[in-house]
Fold:
Amino acid sequence: MDSLKRKGIALTVLALTLGLLAGCGGNDAENNAQSSASGTGAASSGSASPAAMKEPTKIQIGNLFPNLDANNPVMQELSKRTNTTFDLITVTGDRNQKFDLWLASGDYPEDTLVLKPDYVEKYRTAGALMPLDDLIEQYGPNIKEKYGKYFDLLRSSDGHIYSLYVPKLSTEPSPLLQANFAVRYDVLEDAGYPEIKTFDQLYDLLKAFYEKNPTIDGKETIPFAGFDYYGNGADNLSSPTFDASGLINQGNFTIDDQNDAQLLYSTEEMKRYYQFLSKLYNTNMLDKEFFTLKSEALVKKITEGRVLAGYFPSWWVQPEVEKVLRAAGDYDHLYAYFPITFDSSAENKSFTSLMTRSNWNWVISSKTKHPEEVMKLLDYIFSDEGQILINWGIEGRHFEVKDGKRAVLADFNEKKAVNPDLQWTETASPFMGTSIYLDHGTKLADGDYATPTTKESVMSGYDERTKEVLGKYGKEVWSDFLPEIQLMPALLYQLGDLEDVRADMKRLQQVWLKESPKIIFAKNGQDFDAKWTSMQKSLEKEGAAKATDAYEQLWKTSIERYKTILK
Structure:
């Protein structure tokens, strides 16, 4: 479950991990910003505007980014526009430990902080959070406007709102989104860039190349590998099964059209993916360290040019692998990303997005002495003007407007290329990378994008070899391969951990992780079936039915609530 939760928030995790190494204490960003051209137009109706005679309000914020310069130009501009100053209390070290210490001591930031959903619930239960309903009604016009008819999705199970996060407003997939099954460029070129939609097609492609190239630079070729973050096999088995089957990733369970649950480890879909892996193993085409290889060792194998294909999540392969290959000028060994399934004619529901993005949510502390001003600040961030500021920066300094469209200034892009840390001293804010900025691909009321990450910007960052490969398939970015994204009000694995069956789930996962390698490494079909059946009996003995019933009830109760909200 933990690894699945981690991947469910993969793209946001990438953004959050950029600067979380060194720490600092509270910092004041005083309201001494000089006037600068914002170019964003007047603030939206009801958003916070500077009051001519009123003293700025100092707002204490729980900040996730130790490298953030509290006095950078965007922070100063935000301070000026909202008539606030900021006292940043920065999280250092282990975040969960810090949040627990804050709560135990009562020494959490006085005004607002950003928490994961499970910690929102912990803080709410402890009385540390202020209900936001009345504040939003009075001071949150932009929040209400952005949510529209989906406003009640913000509500907790008790009917109140305790945290803020943006709704899904984009009408197109993020241009950074890509499938997770990866095939190397030179393998595709050798076969004439064939269509790769099914595992039969993938197997035939890899087999043909492997037979011609059993070794590479004197080392054994690895036709198919898997990315396994923890080294226990889970990453190589669960999410790939959902992707291979074209099913919505619900964590440890599948949910059918009647909202009935089934333990993933007992499904025909997982058995079918295991059969594919076993076929690879018995033809010497599966990485022998499939269940034990961790990230660093796999990167080494890939950069040696030995790995032809695999299941490689974008949140790992882009920062960990592609940067190494590109730095070495090794463009032939980059990977193309395909949504490969067992049956190309089946409806593919594996690419889903929640109607809201609730992963690092903003809350208002019950200790605050000026909740109205805190809500005005958060509501400003929900405005189009606020989104442009936290995502694009300041017009004339960070971006320009050409023919009604925003574009990052060329000289600022050049400076960022030379100095990757420039964002911290120029454009970063505590709101960056959290649940309060709109998705890439979202268009604002002016018809332009909310963030600089657009299809055009992604394409401009591609090397010529990547553009060539994409062109062979008639695509411009990897997200062009994906099926239409299905919007969901919730996913089962994000609804919480059920204490009543927590011990049962732990035992079930232990059985699954212990028995799976034996099944996949079976010598023949008969041996495979016998070991699969043995695992099913062990799962039944360890409480599979009890756990499934509990999570099915959680899902059905939750989905009924969402149906009521979304009527």
Observations:
- The CA atoms of residues 38 and 394 lie 5 Å apart.
- Confidence is low (pLDDT under 50) at residues 1-51.
- DSSP finds 22 helices and 17 strands in the chain.
- The chain has three domains: 2-173+356-457, 181-350+462-494, 499-565.
